[in-house]
Amino acid sequence: MIIPFLIKHFRTILDALIIAAIMVAFAFFDPFHLFTSKVNIRNTQVAVESIRQIGQLITAEYYGETIASLPQTLTDTITDEQIINEAQSLFNELLSAVNNLKALSQGKKPALKVKEKNIENTFLDSNAWLARNRFYPFIIKYLAGYLDIKQTKNYTEKVLWKIYISNSTDIKFFPTKFLKEISDKNRKAYQEIKKNIVYIGRGWVKAGIDFENLKASDISYSTENKTIYIKNCETRILDCDINPWFIPGKVKGYELIKEKGSFENPFAEAVKVKKRCVENLRVQAIKSGILEQAHQNAKETLKRLIQFTDKQRDQGSCFYNQQI
Amino acid sequence: MLLMLVGSCRKTDEGMVVSKIQKASKLATAEFTINKAVIATKEKNLFWVIKLNEAIFVASTQATIKAGINLGNLKKNDIEINDKSIRILLPNVQIMNFSYPIDKVQIDSTISENQFLNKFTLKEYDAILEQSELKIRDAIPYLGIEEATKQKTRIMLEALLKGLGYTEIFLEFRKGLLLDGVIRKPSDADSLLFNDNPVKPKKS
Q1: Among A36, A256, A297, B62, which has the highest number of CB atoms less than 10 A from its own CB?
Q2: How far apart are the first and last CA of chain A?
Q3: Taking CB atoms and an 8 Å limit, are B62 and A56 in contact across chains?
Q4: CA of B204, closest CA in chain A: separation in Å?
Q5: Can you tell me the distance from the alpha carbon of B114 to that of B96, in angstroms, rounded to the nearest whole number?
Q6: Going by C-beta distance under 8 Å and a sequence separation of 6 or more, which residues neighbour residue A45?
């Protein structure tokens, strides 16, 4: 019952399907910008979760720019099986193309017949797509070895001519022998970078002393040489941040440079890249000498603070910050 | 050809940042953890009027703010010492660090949903978080940061000065929260929250 109905109204159903496909295509590509989209962000509350007492003296600040991409840019590794399948297919098509050339050449005038000197050009005229295949040079090399032809200047011509004049069924494809033609370098060249996300990150790194572990017993004063000793306060990176804004409203902290390919969860992949940006910024700051600068500045700041607040140690005191 | 060449050139929006290390002497005494829920919707409309579908993005985010005082603004004239008594006029409370890390963004996967031919792009996610950061920054003067930081700073400095032998310690702060180089006066909300003489409700 359904089948006669479908047969009877086949044309109408087909027209409806075509119209639906066109509408979906229009919705997807939207060439005339008929389908508009707008992002609305709702106002939500800002709530203080906790307040904590800390004691950190920031003595050096570094700001800079860094770049990062997906740590593992997803690549396709080409396997031996893939190489063999593709090469075998090309091999068969090449032999078939040469046989077609032979068939077409029969019955033609001698001037128009295929000869050794013009076989390569004639072959490429009608089979250029075969020559564009990535394995074409290797198939020709393989055939040169199989047909015992030296790889001199115009050996492609000689290989094609030998196939043309001989029985193509006698020419076999041996996968293991062919694989020897493909070097590791060539295999890597066939890997494609399929997906990538690249971000520029701009942020701050702050270094100094954290007094969190400092106790009263860690501070001592020597009256002999008028020196204050403080331990358990080594200089370290206190903060390393890249926020959405570097300068609020003016300069962005994260800037998307490139997005290639489609991702199941693009946000999660972007988070990986952004975290990498933060790590790169930290390394950059350390290489720039932020810790050394922070250590030097910390000594000066603490000395100045003690001198301000302790008149007895105002003149002639020097300050030494000891690391553990 | 010339028109094409001219038309194809466009200025990029990226700002250039030169890296630099700068000296600082900032004492951070209080750390605030701030939560903000981010809710964004993306409508797909036909002819700007007919709503086809709506994608939704919901995430909880967290910012960390460190506040304290800039010791570089402390001058000798701000300190008065009389034997065992010390009086210090401390600089304005200042935001030392604002951190809005990407790894603290937790998407609520039960509510967040993309629709057919209507997905959030990476640029849209970034724009949503940029807006969210600006909202948090706008709310900073009204979160009681100034008063809480003053309390924490007093605790820390009193312990330090007692250790140096002072018995009478008077600490005063310059009024206002220094935010992005601008002094913001405390709001009514702040002054009610930290009033030493709170107003008791009248009995009927």
Answers
A1: A297
A2: 90
A3: no
A4: 33
A5: 38
A6: B36, B37
d(CA B84, CA A77): 76
Contacts of residue A163, defined as CB under 8 A and 6 or more positions apart, other chains included, come to: A94, A95, A98, A143, A147, A171
Q: Which residues are CB-neighbours of A109 under 8 A, at least 6 positions away? A: none
Measured between alpha carbons, how far is B143 from A227 in angstroms, rounded to an integer? Answer: 42
Compute CA distances B9 → A62, A256, A257, whole Å: 34, 20, 17
- A102: tokens are 């032979």
CA gap A308, B75 in Å, rounded: 9
Specify the DSSP class assigned to residue B14: P
In Å, how far is A41's CA from the nearest CA of chain B?
4
- Residue given tokens 């953890």 in the structure block: B33
pTM: 0.66
Q: Do B19 and A284 touch (CB under 8 A)?
A: yes
Each residue of A42-93: pLDDT tens digit? Answer: 889 899 999 999 999 999 999 999 999 885 444 555 677 878 888 888 899 9
Q: Which pLDDT band, with edges at 50, 70 and 90, does B182 fall under?
A: confident
